[in-house]
Task: structure prediction
Amino acid sequence: MAAPESGDGNNGAARMVTLISSDNTRFEVEAAAASLSQTLQLTILDGGGGGGDGIPLPNVDSATLSKVLEYCIKHAPAAANGGAPNATAVDRAELERFDNEFVNIDQSVLYSLIMAAHNLEIEGLQSLVAKKVADMIKGKSPMEIRRTLGFPDPTPEEQAEMNAHMLEYGWAYE
Amino acid sequence: MNPPPPASTVYGMLLQKHSGSGCQRLMDSVLDLTYHFLRSCISDVPVYTEAFLSADFSSPGGGTDEDRISALPDRVLRGIISLLPAKDAARTAALSSRWRPLWRSAPLVVVDDHLVSGEARFLSPDAQSSIIVSVVTRILEAHPGPFCYVHISWAAMDEHRAELARWIYFLAIKGVEELVLVNRPCPFDLPLPSAIFSLASVSRLLLGVWKFPDTAALPRGAAFPHLLELCLCYLAIEDRDLDFILARSPVLESLVIYSSQMQLNLRIISSSLQCVQLCLCYVLELAMVNAPCLERLFLWETVRREDGDRGSSTIRFGHAPNLRVLGFLMPGIDVLVVGNTVIKVGTKSDSNTVVPSVRVLALNVCFDIRSEVKMLPRFLPSAAELCSDPAADRIFKPAPALQDPMPTEPVTR
Result:
């Protein structure tokens, strides 16, 4: 069995990589955490991001990147264990608690996070933020969803279309 | 009253035993138990109605952050819609012109349990079935497909046979990847339309409480070309129809038979099947006739004689060169046949009677049959016995249907 520490680099010391946000802030993280991003994985595998170089991420600002990395650092050990068949129930419960807290955030941060997860292709984070938005929509009428998601007040045309939808898809409103 | 099922299962026996005595309440509860047991075998649905993550944060309000969600790419929004119960998903089409086409192009998840809400939950099973049937029909009509997951297990379909045929038609032409289709009893033997074989796109399929169609009359092209996992729960299905399914499912990897209305003679002839589980079935004979990829075989709580006692099952090792995991054999009760040789205490082990590939063997030992247990290592020389204890089958439950059909086991690939 491999040691619980990432063991990714040589001599047991975890390899670090540097990521650079769109506003030029540098973040140094373990390669294993950054590799949760499918987009970055191969670059890192090829030795990118090491030394003084750093990988520029022109689409992600520093506030969002720091949030993304918080997620990656927390989830990296479980991911290294191959999706966690060995993880204990306690570990899984802890990750679940972390995830619930993690998405308890302002909507503007949530949408930046969705875009970042999408651009960086971080599967677990993509599914977590999508679940969060889905949970905001569940059990609500279109008007309530619009309000929750911060849509402006509907125009008369939009109102008319909403009513038409309600007539055509009555089963969805029963 | 519907005729009781054949006496070849525990439930069938209980039902027959009590049907004459007018013990309707007991029968009902046995029926209920059967049905709830079957439902418990179905793995978790991918979409749920609860909003676990929705800590209601204050809406940004008044256009400061105007509708940033609508600026997200289609792919992301479709992904969100696919996580919603069917009714919620459909309602998103009313949000705005940006959202209108998205519902129709998002892969749809339909779970019947989500369609009955609020006060309707207190209605009679028949009334709930009618609601489910009518909504499912309208969803399948309105959405162009494909359907990534359709799960119907709460509806009694006897009164709705025409709709059932329509559903299967829609699922066939619009495409379904994963389908759970369970009839809520009674009756137990409602005929499943043979059009089920037109679901060419289905990759995971669970069928429960039906009379399986007679495959002798089917056209030559009838097949499940993409079926990977199949679970049959409490079906009235003939052996030749099981043979037919195996023959017409060229990529099938996992077969689970969870209780059956008939006794089983399963002949495994499949160049793709890797795992077979028979649970709570009445197994007369199981023959690995030609199963080059078969790695795991489980018999769990199989009933082996009509009176409920454990009569013998014959297990034939024909061609299964990759079988690694085998359980739960009952030494002294099951008859093992390797090639043409019946394995008995006095049988000599030689190259014709040894199954060298088995690495993990689970035994279910009921009483003192030490010599039978001791002889097994000679014929299964590479096997590490996981358990030779009557309590062991409590530890090694079979995995729920339609999930990874592998119980916890210390085997490395």
